[in-house]
């Protein structure tokens, strides 16, 4: 819900690590695994086509993941 989202953002904004909020919100929007997100590079993003390419996923395959509009906003 919006209220839960607002509480989560408020709590993460109090964290000492400013990147944690971004990481958690992107993870929630994409459902990508931690390792895939931590290996993500700008060259793997296609914001115009709202997708990201994940290499060496858990299955060992390359995977194209669609991005929500909100996820694109986060990356921008």
Task: Write out key terms for the chains shown.
76 residues; alpha+beta; three-stranded antiparallel sheet; globular
Please explain how this structure is put together.
The protein is globular. 5% of the residues are buried. Helix 2 runs antiparallel to helix 4. Strand 1 (45-46) and strand 2 form a beta hairpin. It has 76 residues and is of the alpha+beta class. It has helices at 2-13, 19-30, 34-38, 69-75; strands at 45-46, 51-54, 63-66. The two termini are 23 Å apart. The chain contains 4 helices and 3 strands, in the order αααβββα. The protein has a 3-stranded antiparallel beta sheet with strand order 1-2-3, with no helix packed on it.
Q: Largest sheet, if any?
A: 3 strands, antiparallel
Secondary-structure element pattern, one letter each: HHHEEEH
- Our measurement of the CA-to-CA distance between the termini, rounded to an integer number of angstroms, reads 23 Å
Structural class: alpha+beta
Strand fraction equals: 5-15%
Strand order of the largest sheet: 1-2-3
The radius of gyration over CA amounts to 13 Å
- Give me the count of strands: 3
> On the 0-100 scale, what is the average pLDDT?
90
Per DSSP, the total helix count is 4
Q: Please mark out the parts with pLDDT under 50 across 5 or more consecutive residues, or reply none.
A: none
């Amino acid at each position: 819900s919006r209220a839960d989202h607002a509480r989560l953002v408020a709590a993460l904004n109090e964290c000492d690590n400013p990147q944690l909020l971004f990481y958690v919100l992107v993870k929630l929007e994409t459902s990508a695994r931690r390792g895939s997100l931590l290996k993500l590079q700008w060259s793997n993003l296609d914001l115009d086509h709202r997708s990201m390419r994940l290499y060496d996923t858990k299955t060992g395959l390359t995977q194209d993941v669609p991005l929500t509009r909100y996820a694109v906003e986060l990356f921008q």
